[in-house]
Design brief:
By secondary structure, the protein is of the alpha/beta class. It has helices at 10-21, 35-45, 53-59, 74-83, 98-111, 125-135, 165-168, 172-188, 274-291, 299-315; strands at residues 2-6, 26-31, 48-50, 64-67, 87-91, 115-118, 142-150, 192-200, 210-217, 222-228, 236-242, 245-250, 254-259, 264-269. The protein folds into two domains: 2-119 and 277-296, 3-Layer(aba) Sandwich (Rossmann fold), CATH 3.40.50.720; 122-271 and 305-315, Dihydrodipicolinate Reductase, domain 2, CATH 3.30.360.10. The radius of gyration is 19 Å and the shape is globular.
Length: 320
Amino acid sequence: MRLGIIGTGIVAAEHLEAARAVAGVRVTAVCDIRADSTRAIAAAAGAAAYADHRAMLARERLDAVVVTAPHALHARLTLDAAAAGVHVLVEKPMATTVADCTAMIEACAAAGVVLAVGHVVRFDPVAHRAAEALRSGTVGDVLAISHRRTSHYRRGSRPGWFFDPAMAGGGIVMNVGIHGLDRIQWLGGGSVVAATGRVWRRDGHAVETDAMGTVELDSGVPASFLLTSAVPAYLDETVVVCERGSLRWSAADGAVLSRDDGTETPLATGPAGPAAAFAAQLADFAAACRDRRAPAVGGDYGRGVVETVHAIYAAAGSLA
Protein backbone atom coordinates (compact mmCIF):
# COMPACT_ATOMS: atom_id res chain seq x y z
CA MET A 1 0.00 0.00 0.00
CA ARG A 2 1.36 3.39 -1.05
CA LEU A 3 0.27 5.72 1.74
CA GLY A 4 0.17 9.50 1.89
CA ILE A 5 -0.03 11.55 5.09
CA ILE A 6 -1.86 14.90 4.98
CA GLY A 7 -0.97 16.99 8.02
CA THR A 8 2.34 16.86 9.88
CA GLY A 9 1.38 17.54 13.49
CA ILE A 10 2.26 15.34 16.45
CA VAL A 11 -0.14 12.56 15.45
CA ALA A 12 1.49 12.29 12.01
CA ALA A 13 4.59 10.86 13.67
CA GLU A 14 2.45 8.12 15.25
CA HIS A 15 1.04 7.17 11.85
CA LEU A 16 4.53 7.14 10.35
CA GLU A 17 5.75 4.77 13.06
CA ALA A 18 2.68 2.59 12.50
CA ALA A 19 3.47 2.36 8.79
CA ARG A 20 6.96 1.14 9.64
CA ALA A 21 5.45 -1.57 11.84
CA VAL A 22 2.83 -2.85 9.39
CA ALA A 23 4.02 -5.14 6.62
CA GLY A 24 3.02 -4.10 3.13
CA VAL A 25 2.52 -0.42 3.94
CA ARG A 26 4.91 2.36 2.89
CA VAL A 27 4.56 6.12 3.27
CA THR A 28 5.45 7.56 -0.15
CA ALA A 29 4.19 11.15 0.16
CA VAL A 30 3.64 13.74 2.90
CA CYS A 31 1.73 17.01 2.65
CA ASP A 32 1.36 20.13 4.79
CA ILE A 33 1.50 23.88 4.19
CA ARG A 34 4.25 24.07 6.84
CA ALA A 35 7.38 23.45 4.80
CA ASP A 36 9.77 22.66 7.68
CA SER A 37 7.64 19.97 9.30
CA THR A 38 6.71 18.51 5.91
CA ARG A 39 10.33 18.15 4.92
CA ALA A 40 11.21 16.60 8.27
CA ILE A 41 8.45 13.97 8.15
CA ALA A 42 9.08 13.28 4.46
CA ALA A 43 12.80 12.83 5.07
CA ALA A 44 12.13 10.44 7.96
CA ALA A 45 9.84 8.39 5.70
CA GLY A 46 11.94 8.63 2.55
CA ALA A 47 8.87 10.15 0.91
CA ALA A 48 8.04 13.03 -1.41
CA ALA A 49 7.04 16.34 0.20
CA TYR A 50 4.12 18.49 -0.94
CA ALA A 51 2.52 21.75 0.14
CA ASP A 52 -0.71 21.11 -1.81
CA HIS A 53 -2.69 17.90 -1.26
CA ARG A 54 -4.32 18.16 -4.69
CA ALA A 55 -0.92 18.14 -6.35
CA MET A 56 0.07 15.13 -4.24
CA LEU A 57 -3.09 13.24 -5.21
CA ALA A 58 -2.55 14.07 -8.89
CA ARG A 59 1.15 13.21 -9.12
CA GLU A 60 1.61 10.30 -6.70
CA ARG A 61 0.17 6.83 -7.31
CA LEU A 62 -1.33 6.62 -3.84
CA ASP A 63 -3.57 3.82 -2.65
CA ALA A 64 -4.64 5.59 0.54
CA VAL A 65 -4.13 8.66 2.69
CA VAL A 66 -4.18 9.40 6.40
CA VAL A 67 -5.81 12.76 7.11
CA THR A 68 -4.42 14.33 10.26
CA ALA A 69 -4.96 18.01 9.51
CA PRO A 70 -7.00 20.49 11.63
CA HIS A 71 -10.54 19.23 12.19
CA ALA A 72 -12.41 21.64 9.92
CA LEU A 73 -10.27 20.52 6.95
CA HIS A 74 -11.12 16.83 7.29
CA ALA A 75 -14.18 16.95 5.04
CA ARG A 76 -12.57 18.81 2.14
CA LEU A 77 -9.46 16.63 2.20
CA THR A 78 -11.54 13.44 2.34
CA LEU A 79 -13.77 14.54 -0.54
CA ASP A 80 -10.72 15.33 -2.69
CA ALA A 81 -9.12 11.97 -1.87
CA ALA A 82 -12.32 10.12 -2.71
CA ALA A 83 -12.57 11.97 -6.02
CA ALA A 84 -9.06 10.73 -6.79
CA GLY A 85 -10.07 7.13 -5.99
CA VAL A 86 -7.93 7.00 -2.85
CA HIS A 87 -8.93 5.25 0.40
CA VAL A 88 -9.10 7.45 3.54
CA LEU A 89 -8.23 7.00 7.21
CA VAL A 90 -9.31 10.28 8.82
CA GLU A 91 -8.34 11.23 12.35
CA LYS A 92 -10.97 11.83 14.99
CA PRO A 93 -13.13 13.83 15.17
CA MET A 94 -14.30 12.72 11.73
CA ALA A 95 -15.39 16.32 10.99
CA THR A 96 -16.71 19.35 12.84
CA THR A 97 -20.32 19.00 11.66
CA VAL A 98 -22.70 16.12 11.11
CA ALA A 99 -23.43 17.40 7.60
CA ASP A 100 -19.73 17.17 6.71
CA CYS A 101 -19.60 13.62 8.08
CA THR A 102 -22.52 12.66 5.84
CA ALA A 103 -20.89 14.24 2.80
CA MET A 104 -17.71 12.26 3.49
CA ILE A 105 -19.61 8.98 3.83
CA GLU A 106 -21.54 9.56 0.62
CA ALA A 107 -18.47 10.64 -1.39
CA CYS A 108 -16.41 7.61 -0.35
CA ALA A 109 -19.32 5.25 -1.04
CA ALA A 110 -19.86 6.75 -4.49
CA ALA A 111 -16.14 6.46 -5.28
CA GLY A 112 -15.94 2.90 -3.97
CA VAL A 113 -13.16 3.72 -1.49
CA VAL A 114 -12.82 2.75 2.16
CA LEU A 115 -13.49 5.40 4.80
CA ALA A 116 -12.10 4.64 8.27
CA VAL A 117 -12.18 6.95 11.29
CA GLY A 118 -9.23 7.11 13.68
CA HIS A 119 -10.80 6.30 17.04
CA VAL A 120 -7.50 4.72 17.97
CA VAL A 121 -8.47 3.79 21.54
CA ARG A 122 -10.59 1.05 19.98
CA PHE A 123 -7.34 -0.69 18.99
CA ASP A 124 -5.57 -0.34 22.34
CA PRO A 125 -4.59 -3.80 23.68
CA VAL A 126 -5.73 -2.82 27.19
CA ALA A 127 -9.09 -1.80 25.74
CA HIS A 128 -9.49 -5.20 24.17
CA ARG A 129 -8.72 -7.00 27.42
CA ALA A 130 -11.19 -4.79 29.25
CA ALA A 131 -13.94 -5.40 26.69
CA GLU A 132 -13.31 -9.14 26.66
CA ALA A 133 -13.51 -9.29 30.45
CA LEU A 134 -16.89 -7.54 30.42
CA ARG A 135 -18.21 -9.70 27.58
CA SER A 136 -17.21 -12.86 29.47
CA GLY A 137 -20.03 -12.26 31.95
CA THR A 138 -17.79 -12.81 34.97
CA VAL A 139 -19.16 -9.75 36.75
CA GLY A 140 -22.58 -9.75 35.10
CA ASP A 141 -24.22 -7.13 32.93
CA VAL A 142 -23.02 -3.53 32.79
CA LEU A 143 -25.18 -1.25 34.95
CA ALA A 144 -23.46 2.15 34.64
CA ILE A 145 -20.25 3.84 33.51
CA SER A 146 -18.29 6.83 34.82
CA HIS A 147 -15.52 8.50 32.80
CA ARG A 148 -13.09 11.19 33.96
CA ARG A 149 -10.35 12.85 31.92
CA THR A 150 -8.00 15.79 32.37
CA SER A 151 -6.26 17.70 29.60
CA HIS A 152 -4.36 20.98 29.53
CA TYR A 153 -6.11 23.78 27.68
CA ARG A 154 -3.90 26.68 28.65
CA ARG A 155 -2.43 28.87 25.93
CA GLY A 156 0.69 27.37 24.43
CA SER A 157 -0.25 23.83 25.49
CA ARG A 158 -1.30 22.95 21.92
CA PRO A 159 -1.29 24.54 18.45
CA GLY A 160 -3.31 27.74 18.18
CA TRP A 161 -6.00 26.34 15.90
CA PHE A 162 -7.30 24.17 18.76
CA PHE A 163 -8.59 27.39 20.36
CA ASP A 164 -10.45 28.50 17.21
CA PRO A 165 -14.07 27.21 17.30
CA ALA A 166 -14.37 27.36 13.50
CA MET A 167 -11.25 25.27 12.92
CA ALA A 168 -11.40 22.90 15.90
CA GLY A 169 -15.18 22.51 16.03
CA GLY A 170 -15.12 22.82 19.81
CA GLY A 171 -12.83 22.41 22.76
CA ILE A 172 -12.24 19.67 25.30
CA VAL A 173 -15.39 17.71 24.39
CA MET A 174 -14.71 17.60 20.65
CA ASN A 175 -10.98 17.05 20.94
CA VAL A 176 -10.45 15.00 24.11
CA GLY A 177 -13.83 13.88 25.40
CA ILE A 178 -14.53 12.16 22.12
CA HIS A 179 -12.20 9.35 23.25
CA GLY A 180 -14.28 8.87 26.39
CA LEU A 181 -17.54 8.90 24.45
CA ASP A 182 -16.10 6.20 22.21
CA ARG A 183 -14.96 4.18 25.23
CA ILE A 184 -18.37 4.48 26.91
CA GLN A 185 -20.18 3.16 23.85
CA TRP A 186 -17.78 0.29 23.35
CA LEU A 187 -17.75 -0.91 26.96
CA GLY A 188 -21.47 -0.19 27.39
CA GLY A 189 -22.37 -2.24 24.33
CA GLY A 190 -24.54 0.37 22.65
CA SER A 191 -24.91 3.69 20.85
CA VAL A 192 -25.77 7.04 22.43
CA VAL A 193 -29.48 7.88 22.22
CA ALA A 194 -29.59 10.84 24.63
CA ALA A 195 -27.08 13.32 26.02
CA THR A 196 -27.00 16.19 28.49
CA GLY A 197 -24.14 18.45 29.45
CA ARG A 198 -22.73 21.71 30.70
CA VAL A 199 -19.56 23.39 29.50
CA TRP A 200 -17.31 26.16 30.79
CA ARG A 201 -14.79 28.43 29.10
CA ARG A 202 -12.07 29.40 31.52
CA ASP A 203 -9.10 31.71 30.98
CA GLY A 204 -10.93 33.71 28.30
CA HIS A 205 -10.89 30.91 25.71
CA ALA A 206 -13.34 30.83 22.80
CA VAL A 207 -13.76 27.03 23.18
CA GLU A 208 -14.83 25.08 26.23
CA THR A 209 -12.07 24.00 28.58
CA ASP A 210 -14.23 21.96 30.96
CA ALA A 211 -17.42 19.92 30.66
CA MET A 212 -19.58 17.44 32.49
CA GLY A 213 -22.73 15.56 31.62
CA THR A 214 -24.44 12.26 31.00
CA VAL A 215 -25.29 10.02 28.08
CA GLU A 216 -27.64 7.08 27.75
CA LEU A 217 -27.01 4.12 25.46
CA ASP A 218 -29.57 2.13 23.51
CA SER A 219 -28.36 -0.86 25.54
CA GLY A 220 -29.95 0.84 28.56
CA VAL A 221 -26.62 1.75 30.15
CA PRO A 222 -26.31 5.30 31.58
CA ALA A 223 -22.92 7.00 31.77
CA SER A 224 -21.45 10.18 33.19
CA PHE A 225 -18.38 12.13 32.10
CA LEU A 226 -16.19 14.85 33.56
CA LEU A 227 -13.61 16.56 31.36
CA THR A 228 -11.45 19.22 32.93
CA SER A 229 -8.37 21.33 32.41
CA ALA A 230 -8.41 22.40 36.07
CA VAL A 231 -6.63 19.37 37.57
CA PRO A 232 -2.85 19.42 37.10
CA ALA A 233 -2.37 15.67 37.59
CA TYR A 234 -3.05 13.48 34.56
CA LEU A 235 -6.20 11.40 34.82
CA ASP A 236 -7.87 9.22 32.20
CA GLU A 237 -10.08 6.70 33.94
CA THR A 238 -13.26 4.78 33.18
CA VAL A 239 -15.13 2.80 35.84
CA VAL A 240 -17.73 0.28 34.71
CA VAL A 241 -20.19 -0.80 37.40
CA CYS A 242 -21.60 -4.30 36.86
CA GLU A 243 -24.03 -6.66 38.59
CA ARG A 244 -21.34 -8.57 40.48
CA GLY A 245 -18.35 -6.29 40.44
CA SER A 246 -16.67 -3.58 38.41
CA LEU A 247 -13.97 -2.78 35.92
CA ARG A 248 -11.52 0.10 36.32
CA TRP A 249 -9.60 1.10 33.22
CA SER A 250 -6.92 3.74 33.66
CA ALA A 251 -4.69 4.93 30.83
CA ALA A 252 -1.92 5.45 33.40
CA ASP A 253 -2.31 2.36 35.59
CA GLY A 254 -3.89 -0.31 33.39
CA ALA A 255 -7.11 -2.24 33.96
CA VAL A 256 -8.42 -4.29 36.90
CA LEU A 257 -11.53 -6.45 37.12
CA SER A 258 -12.96 -6.49 40.68
CA ARG A 259 -15.54 -9.01 41.92
CA ASP A 260 -17.95 -8.57 44.80
CA ASP A 261 -16.26 -11.47 46.64
CA GLY A 262 -13.16 -9.28 47.01
CA THR A 263 -11.00 -10.89 44.35
CA GLU A 264 -9.28 -8.73 41.76
CA THR A 265 -7.82 -9.69 38.40
CA PRO A 266 -5.29 -7.33 36.80
CA LEU A 267 -5.94 -7.25 33.06
CA ALA A 268 -2.99 -5.00 32.28
CA THR A 269 -0.60 -2.89 34.33
CA GLY A 270 0.84 0.46 33.38
CA PRO A 271 0.24 2.46 30.20
CA ALA A 272 0.28 0.45 26.99
CA GLY A 273 1.51 3.39 24.92
CA PRO A 274 0.06 4.46 21.59
CA ALA A 275 2.37 2.58 19.22
CA ALA A 276 0.59 -0.79 19.33
CA ALA A 277 -2.83 0.83 18.93
CA PHE A 278 -1.80 2.95 15.94
CA ALA A 279 -0.18 -0.07 14.27
CA ALA A 280 -3.28 -2.23 14.82
CA GLN A 281 -5.49 0.54 13.48
CA LEU A 282 -3.40 0.91 10.32
CA ALA A 283 -3.26 -2.85 9.84
CA ASP A 284 -7.06 -3.05 9.99
CA PHE A 285 -7.37 -0.14 7.53
CA ALA A 286 -4.89 -1.73 5.11
CA ALA A 287 -6.73 -5.06 5.27
CA ALA A 288 -10.07 -3.32 4.68
CA CYS A 289 -8.66 -1.59 1.59
CA ARG A 290 -7.11 -4.80 0.29
CA ASP A 291 -10.14 -6.98 0.91
CA ARG A 292 -12.72 -4.31 0.07
CA ARG A 293 -14.44 -4.77 3.42
CA ALA A 294 -15.68 -2.38 6.06
CA PRO A 295 -13.05 -1.17 8.55
CA ALA A 296 -13.44 -1.79 12.26
CA VAL A 297 -14.40 1.87 12.77
CA GLY A 298 -16.23 3.33 9.79
CA GLY A 299 -17.92 6.54 8.79
CA ASP A 300 -21.33 5.82 10.28
CA TYR A 301 -19.80 5.29 13.71
CA GLY A 302 -17.59 8.37 13.39
CA ARG A 303 -20.61 10.46 12.46
CA GLY A 304 -22.52 9.11 15.47
CA VAL A 305 -19.79 10.27 17.85
CA VAL A 306 -19.81 13.76 16.29
CA GLU A 307 -23.61 13.79 16.66
CA THR A 308 -23.18 13.05 20.37
CA VAL A 309 -20.70 15.90 20.81
CA HIS A 310 -23.15 18.31 19.19
CA ALA A 311 -25.99 16.98 21.35
CA ILE A 312 -23.90 17.79 24.43
CA TYR A 313 -23.20 21.29 23.09
CA ALA A 314 -26.91 21.81 22.33
CA ALA A 315 -27.88 20.69 25.84
CA ALA A 316 -25.30 23.09 27.25
CA GLY A 317 -26.69 25.93 25.16
CA SER A 318 -23.46 26.18 23.19
CA LEU A 319 -22.23 24.90 19.85
CA ALA A 320 -18.57 25.17 20.78
